[in-house]
Design a protein that fits this description.
single chain; 259 residues; mainly alpha; Glycerol uptake facilitator protein; 9 helices; Aquaporin_transptr; transport
């Protein structure tokens, strides 16, 4: 018997557990909130020059928007679906033995749809403004070269997205291990971790760590964003799988129960 319990999603075995439809909806809505919050901040608030009517929240504001969006989504829907809101998280938790493989496809589908709905809603809002320009979605997309705020190349972007996602998964699995952290504080730790890694990664890659968020911006970001979205899908998945496998092997070892 393991000392830990899979607490990242409600068990489907117990009576009264949320149905698949409820979990699908929770993941869709949670991912919508995440993408709407972080990409909306990047589009509408980060690019202002600080003049009249401008906020100019910059990288710090976008990082905080990312972390806070996950916190509120996790508190709102975590009890229903576990609050993944990210295909890389879902896959990493499955590799780590914290999530059922037969639910992975349903979760990823919900997350991708939720992200696309959010970016489409942002497009609708943007279309009613004085400076309608799809180029803002390119600016919010993750990538290297022209898509990197700091002009970093493919290897640097791949590394930061992989490493940052692995760190994110280590924290998620650590704070959701039974008995190690008060459950009510787990979303705060997870959101703060996202904020920290985003502060590191945004100047390099624009900081996604989330294939659903990357797809959501790339579909409106033009040829460069679409051409590079593979990296923003692959790197987080690799990072999450590595973290899930390591955490399971090192920290979730079976222990002998005392008498």
């Amino acid at each position: 018997m393991s000392e830990t319990a899979p607490v990242d999603a409600p068990s489907t075995d117990r009576v009264g557990a949320p149905s698949t439809a409820k979990r699908f909806t929770a993941e869709l809505l949670g991912t919508f909130i995440l993408v709407f919050g972080v990409v909306g901040t990047a589009i509408f608030a980060a690019g202002f020059d600080g003049g009249e009517g401008g906020l100019n929240v910059g990288f710090l504001g976008v990082s905080l928007a990312l972390g806070l969006s996950v916190v509120v989504g996790a508190y709102a829907f975590g009890a229903i679906s576990g609050g993944h809101f990210n295909p890389a998280v879902t896959l990493g938790l499955a590799v780590g033995g914290r999530f059922a493989w037969n639910e992975v496809g349903v979760y990823i589908l919900a997350q991708v749809i939720g992200g696309i709905l959010a970016s489409t809603a942002l497009l609708g809002i943007l279309s009613g403004g004085p400076l309608f320009d799809l180029a803002v979605f390119q600016g919010a997309s993750t990538g290297y070269g022209v898509l990197s705020p700091g002009g970093y190349g493919l290897v640097s972007v791949f590394l930061v997205e992989t490493i940052a996602t692995a760190v994110f998964l280590f924290v998620i699995m650590g704070v959701t291990t039974a008995g190690r952290t008060a459950a009510n504080f787990a979303p705060l730790a997870i959101g703060l971790t996202l904020t920290v890694i985003a502060l590191v990664a945004i100047p390099i890659s624009n900081g996604s760590f989330n294939p659903a968020r990357s797809i959501a911006t790339a579909i409106y970001g033009g040829p460069d964003a679409l051409g590079q979205v593979w990296l923003s899908i692959l790197a987080p998945i690799i990072g999450a799988i590595i973290a899930g496998a390591i955490f399971k092997a090192v920290f979730d070892r079976p222990v002998k129960l005392g008498s």
